[in-house]
Amino acid sequence: MVNRLQQWFGRGWIGIAELLMTAFCVFLSLSIHEFAHGYTAYKLGDNTAKSMGRLNLSPLSHLDPIGALCLFLFGFGWARPVPVNPGNFAVGKRKSGMVITSLAGPLSNLLVAFVAVFLLNLVYLVPLGSEVEATILSVITTMLYILISMNIGLAVFNFIPIPPLDGSKILSAVLPPRTYFKLMQYEQYGFIILIILINTPIFGSLLNTISNLILSFYFWVIGLIPFF
């Protein structure tokens, strides 16, 4: 795969080509993640994200420089959180509405990764033709691999119950209100804790293990689908 890209772009351009593909996947993955939050909240009755112009897939609306850089370098990261007002959810469903909205982001990335795995299997079925066609397939394959890795990593990372990640908001459904609000008092230190954890080998190894398990499950499921 790399050899074909080198033949097409030249050795001096292969790094730039991969850099551009990775950047595209970062922008797309983060945008889908935040759009899923905003759209879910909107469907549940909260139009805060829509009124603030965040209900779209534009990277300029959702990009968090530090989170995007972490996703680019480590495969784990975050975007600028979409504003959600649980008070706009139906009475009696505000806690569950917040949990559903928080789950929407990571689940959307898991869905993107699954679709990418499916497409990757289809690409492998395409017979190789000319050198140009083979190179195009190599580019598509590389892009799909990056998209798969990035979206699974983004989903797994955001399930961590540390503010301001989605996992911390999901805790609101399982923790007593007093305990949850006490935990949220330390939200301002969340980014510092996350940066430290990202640079901890054991933490990175754990996230990679979980990500690989999800990827293996996807390939197993796709293997059950007949391809004609």
In total, the number of domains comes to: 1
Outline the biggest β-sheet: none
Number of alpha- plus pi-helical segments: 11
Q: Which strand-content bin applies to the residues?
A: under 5%
| Overall morphology | globular
Secondary-structure content class: mainly alpha
Number of beta strands: 0
The run of helices and strands is HHHHHHHHHHH
Note poorly predicted spans.
Answer: 1-10
Mean pLDDT: 85
Rounded to the nearest angstrom, the distance between the terminal CA atoms is 25 Å
Helix content: over 70%
Radius of gyration: 19 Å
Q: Short summary of the structure?
A:
With 228 residues, the protein is mostly helical.
Question: Keyphrases for this structure?
Answer:
single chain; disordered N terminus; 228 residues; mainly alpha; globular
Helices and strands, with pairings:
Layout: H1 2-9, H2 11-43, H3 48-51, H4 59-62, H5 65-74, H6 94-125, H7 131-158, H8 166-170, H9 177-184, H10 190-198, H11 201-223
Helix pairs in contact: 1-2, 1-7, 2-6, 2-7, 6-7, 6-11, 7-11
Detailed description of the structure:
The structure is a single chain. With 228 residues, the protein is mostly helical. It has one domain. Helix content is 72%, strand content 0%. It contains eleven helices and no strands. The protein has helices at 2-9, 11-43, 48-51, 59-62, 65-74, 94-125, 131-158, 166-170, 177-184, 190-198, 201-223. α2 crosses α7 (131-158) and α7 (131-158) crosses α11. Mean pLDDT is 85; it is low at 1-10.
